[in-house]
Specification:
Elements: H1 2-33, H2 37-49, H3 51-62, H4 66-91, H5 95-98, H6 103-122, E1 128-129, E2 132-133, H7 134-153, H8 165-197, H9 201-213, H10 215-226, H11 230-255, H12 267-290, E3 295-296, E4 299-300, H13 301-322
Antiparallel strand pairs: 1-2, 3-4
Helix pairs in contact: 1-2, 1-8, 1-10, 2-10, 2-11, 3-4, 3-8, 3-11, 4-9, 4-10, 4-11, 4-12, 4-13, 6-7, 6-11, 6-12, 7-11, 8-9, 9-13, 10-11, 12-13
Length: 324
Amino acid sequence: MLWAWVTLGASALTILWAGRRLVRAAEGIAESTGLSRGWLGFILVGLVTSLPELVVTMTGGGIDAPSISVGNALGSNAFNLGILGVFGLLIGRGLFGKLASSHIVSCALGMMMTAVVLGAIALGGGPALGPLSVTSVLIVVLFLAAAWLQYLAEPAAPVEGGPPLGRAAWVASGSAVAVVVAGVALTLAAREVAVGTGASQSLLGSTLVAMATSLPEVAVSWEAVRLRAYDMFAGNVFGSNVFNVLTVFFADLTYGKPILGGLGEEAWALTLVGAWGVALASVVLAALGLKADKRVGRLDLASGLTVMTYLAGLGAVVIRGLNS
């Protein structure tokens, strides 16, 4: 049991270190290619920072822990939006008023993909296509639509020189490898903790594992905000959320059948986790659409509401998990 907790901590630190290196690599790629920071945040940084969720979700399917898989994907989305609110409070200068309107696209499509997952859970997984579900195929279609629409919505940026492109690409690749290795170790350790403590897999997956696998988003957010690359910060959050839902497709492959149909009595708890994420996304979507920048002193009201919604949902999920 002690070894499992040590592994959890070491994996989390590795993920945190790799995430900070990643954002600097992405910044270098933006400067060298002229690609917008919002687009890079969505497609590159969002993908790499979602690798822990992908590894955890697929590994959870492979070790017959479907509730950890799905709980991690849905819980990570809620945690990422909580990150957005926390850093909005730290910035204290009306974060949502600074962000490009193009983020509305990825935020809305991420919320739509989550709603599709919730519908499939309510239907017991939905119709199957061999090892896949119709839901998983639909999720892939929605992901491709999100990526394309986000690309169209993002304006190109001027080339700024920057470090050699090859070096930045190597740093990004090395960070991705570190994240994958740490993600596998994290999943196995989390299962041991669940067995040792008697905690439900849905509670563990949507809280402890989700928070740990979202550490790259925390690291990236810190670096991006420090560099005032706010659109890269937001693009990473929304891109990561879209990728997180996409991991359900890959979980079907490792589980050998539609994973959303294998949740059993944990299905209701995971529906609550998904609804928590949709509620958070609704608050953020409204703030983006209104370019909300109202403050009381240095307190950004939209960011404060986002954090309050996150904490309220977290409390509900924990109470539900402890009473199950």
